[in-house]
Design brief:
Elements (H helix, E strand, L loop, with lengths): L1 E2 L8 H5 L6 E5 L2 E2 L3 H13 L4 E7 L5 E7 H6 E4 L2 E7 L12 E8 L4 H4 L7 E5 L2 E2 L3 H14 L3 E7 L9 E4 L15
């Protein structure tokens, strides 16, 4: 099961009534246990040409309900570490012309998050997490999740401001329980 941490208020999910705290139990009758499985289910549906995905979601009271969400919705937004990102077309002011023509733009920053304390704000673009290129919000979510799996204590973000100027690398602590912590490593 995957708990919804953030829901972009402009997304189909928000308009349908999906809220932070709700839990996705399955997608297309296949259980999802991690954000990567959640993302993979939407990518599979998109590759198959489906326009909507059926899922079962439990609300805050634990009541399970069926939902249908457009496939494009999950591909457009992603949220972790106090950041909500949306898919946008890459513009010439951002470097890395060899990359695809999309980028992950920050649309919201949780005011209580470390991301806010580090100076991140809407309009900035995340182009990398550690050594992983970020072209979409889902790339961002998958990269952070992979760092969590390896026990990394920190996500190192390559961020550009609204004018396309590279910022110093931003380090955000990854949420971990004490049993999962491993020895700190230097930035990849």
């Amino acid at each position: 099961m995957v708990r919804m941490q953030d829901v972009d208020p402009t997304s189909y999910a928000a308009k349908a009534g999906i809220k932070p705290g709700m839990i996705v139990l399955d997608i297309a009758e296949t259980q999802v246990a991690t954000p990567s499985q959640f993302i993979a289910a939407f990518r599979t549906a998109k590759a198959a040409g489906e326009t909507e995905v059926a899922m079962t979601i439990a609300n805050e009271a634990g009541v399970q309900q069926p939902w249908e969400l457009p496939v494009a919705d999950a591909a457009q937004t992603g949220a972790m570490l106090g950041l909500t990102l949306a898919l946008a077309n890459r513009t010439v002011k951002f470097p890395h012309s060899a990359w695809e023509h999309t980028m992950a733009v920050i649309t919201q920053v949780d005011p209580e998050s470390e991301a806010m304390q580090q100076g991140l704000k809407p309009g900035m673009v995340v182009l990398g997490v550690g050594s992983t290129e970020v072209r979409t919000p889902l790339d961002f979510v998958a990269a952070v999740e992979e760092l969590n799996k390896t026990g990394a204590p920190t996500a190192w973000l390559d961020v550009y401001d609204e004018a396309g100027v590279a910022m110093p690398t931003v380090a955000l602590a990854l949420p971990q329980d004490a049993a999962a912590r491993r020895v700190s490593r230097s930035r990849p």
